[in-house]
Amino acid sequence: MKSIIIISFIIFGCVSFGAQAQTYQINKQNYNHVMYTRMPGDPYNPALMGIASTISGLGQILSGETKRGLAFMGSTYAAYGLGILALNSSYTQSGELEEILSDVYVRFLGAGLIAGAVILNVWSIFDAVKVAKVNNMYFQDMRGNLRSVKVELNPFLSNNNYLGQTNTSAGFTLKITF
Length: 178
Description:
By secondary structure, the protein is of the alpha+beta class. It has one domain. It has 6 helices and 2 strands. Helix 1 (2-18) runs antiparallel to helix 5, helix 2 (22-30) crosses helix 6 (97-143) and helix 5 (66-88) packs antiparallel against helix 6. The longest helix is centred in the C-terminal third of the chain and has 47 residues, at 97-143.
């Protein structure tokens, strides 16, 4: 029983830490989810992704981060399953002290796994909202919505030769991009 739990933790760790979606990893370096403003045409609704992530990982999958969502989903439900398995398999037949202590240890382990699964589920909800916001900001930037007005003011200096006379002119150029 203990070896099954240890192997499950190893698999759980490999699955949950190895599956990172590259597009979100790149987008989160360029966009701050706190600065997000909803605009028409955003492909992902952050509130809806949070609600969808009550089924752990579904919000990430719907936001285009399939590997990330599957990592949340797999790790959460693996922890739930192992926790329930540990709680249900810890009945002692004899009354020896070692078996009773082992039974208590397995019950605490099961309760800890279920508590960890609940924490992962809540984390999944907040993460789905964040992923949806960051990915929306990327799409807004691709459509040009984030940089609606760009103003550049550059100095210039030129020498003009007109009919044998050299004129020096200086000034500024103003460039406005919408």
